[in-house]
Specification:
Length: 259
């Protein structure tokens, strides 16, 4: 038996039959019939090429990134106020206070009023400028400037009431200064109004009197500062209200609230 179609074709080719296309077709037909009858072995089918299988690729997901939302100014002030409430740097003030008096108002205010320290009413209520002096300040803001008290921010050099409403001691003001700086850094005001000599001298680190500082636009870390008399002083010296009104008008012009 022939080993396959290819062997049989090779013999036929030697016989010269493969040179004739017709004869070659006849031979191929006979070979196919012979293979089907088992006379010769069928030509094996060419092996199929293996299907392409790609190497498995491990897809590594990108690392998850935790995005912390920014903390609002209001929340930052609340956290700072909680820190102030725990402060006992000034033992005399901490022992005598009812509570700390942090600040109140708009955490995004363009204007911040700074006084010297809480009084008895503020110590009881925990809010700055709520007594008679506070009412006068409210009148200045609402009736004089045509703003709301909630539009501005109000705080003091000290967050604790000094015994007997005395002026803050230098070491007390220094101990409380980081809280004032942090408050201003959070609010980022464009304008500051210092109420009285204690506030102006401590903020600006100046020994000038309030009489020399008022009537001018000063600068503190690129913030415009106007100084005027403390409302408590105006209650004792009503004649000074005219000078204070002039200072407030100067402030309003700088804020473009007044032509």
């Amino acid at each position: 038996m022939y080993q396959g179609v290819s062997d049989y074709l090779a013999i036929m080719q030697l016989s010269g039959l493969s040179e004739l296309p017709r004869a070659e077709r006849v031979v191929k037909k006979k070979i196919t019939a012979a293979a089907a009858a088992g006379i010769i072995a069928a030509e094996p089918e060419p092996a199929a090429e293996p299907a392409f299988v790609s190497d498995p690729v491990s897809v590594i997901p990108p690392p998850s990134v935790s995005v912390t939302p920014p903390v609002s100014a209001d929340k930052r002030l609340q956290l700072l106020a909680a820190e102030v409430a725990q402060c006992r740097k000034c033992s005399e003030l901490a022992a005598a206070r009812c509570q700390t008096v942090f600040g109140t108002g708009n955490p995004a205010a363009e204007l911040v009023f700074i006084g010297e320290a809480p009084g008895a009413d503020e110590d009881k209520q925990g809010e700055p400028f709520v007594g008679r002096a506070g009412q006068l300040l409210t009148d200045i803001i609402v009736k004089g400037m045509n703003l709301r008290r909630e539009d501005v921010y109000i705080c003091n050099i000290l967050r604790c009431r000094p015994p007997g409403n005395r002026n803050p001691l230098p070491e007390e003001a220094a101990a409380c200064r980081p809280f004032l700086d942090a408050t201003l850094d959070i609010i980022k005001p464009k304008f500051i109004c210092c109420l009285g000599a204690v506030a102006a001298q401590n903020l600006l680190q100046s020994e000038q009197t309030i009489g020399r500082m008022r009537g001018n636009v000063l600068n503190y870390q690129d913030i415009k500062v106007v100084c005027t008399y403390h409302p408590a002083y105006l209650l004792r010296n009503p004649a000074a209200k005219k000078d204070t009104w002039n200072d407030i008008q100067l402030l309003m012009r700088e804020m473009r609230l007044l032509d």
